[in-house]
Inverse folding.
């Protein structure tokens, strides 16, 4: 297997507060990994670094062969757009537009023409079981359906890496199970899936768990 994500002795500080210290880990291409730990443990900081949303204070973060500390902001944006999909606990859907437009606009910075984006968006929504909800706006969808729209938006452009931050946190258990099943299907199709969670049941659903405690990779 190919090492897709590599952190070597990574430290991250915010205004003198250490959020992550001496963190080293490797995630191979095609893995399904959960990162688990209590609130304030450093999980979100790790996601920010892996998602190229931030740079380390020291140490090395390599994503798909790129050392993120050496890339310009424009290059980091391009790497995110082409390689990484995000799913968040709060959905982050635009309230005034349809599910189709929410998913289509998620590919805005990939250089795909509008007609092609809409076609890919429709396919992605059908894939998550929402082919009958293309024209519905977020307020017309249940929480589970909104999270499925978020998964469709994150995966419509076929990213190499899917990062999900507490994707079941705002859902009932059945909807949460449905979302985790979707992520498992994406993993089986070859996507590298990383789920940040504090839920032990969600954590146990993945073949590999990475435990974070007090800013350190504990196991």
């Amino acid at each position: 297997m190919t090492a897709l994500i590599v952190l070597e002795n990574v430290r991250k500080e915010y205004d003198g507060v250490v959020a992550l210290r001496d963190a080293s880990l490797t995630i191979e291409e095609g893995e399904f990994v959960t990162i688990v730990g209590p609130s304030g443990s450093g999980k979100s900081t790790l996601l920010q670094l892996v998602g190229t949303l931030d740079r380390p204070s020291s140490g090395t973060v390599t994503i798909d062969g790129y050392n993120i500390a050496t890339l310009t902001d424009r290059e980091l944006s391009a790497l995110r757009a082409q390689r990484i999909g995000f799913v968040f606990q709060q959905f982050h859907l635009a309230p005034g537009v349809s599910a189709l437009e929410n998913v289509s606009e998620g590919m805005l910075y990939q250089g795909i023409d509008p007609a092609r984006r809409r076609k890919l968006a429709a396919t992605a929504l059908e894939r998550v079981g929402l082919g009958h909800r293309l024209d519905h706006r977020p307020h017309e969808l249940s929480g589970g359906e909104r999270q499925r729209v978020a998964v469709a938006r994150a995966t419509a452009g076929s990213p190499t890496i899917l990062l999900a931050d507490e994707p079941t946190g705002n859902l009932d258990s059945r909807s949460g199970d449905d979302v985790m099943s979707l992520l498992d299907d994406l993993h089986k199709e070859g996507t590298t899936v990383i789920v940040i969670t504090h839920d032990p049941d969600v954590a146990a659903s993945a073949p590999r768990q990475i435990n974070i405690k007090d800013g350190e990779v504990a196991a």
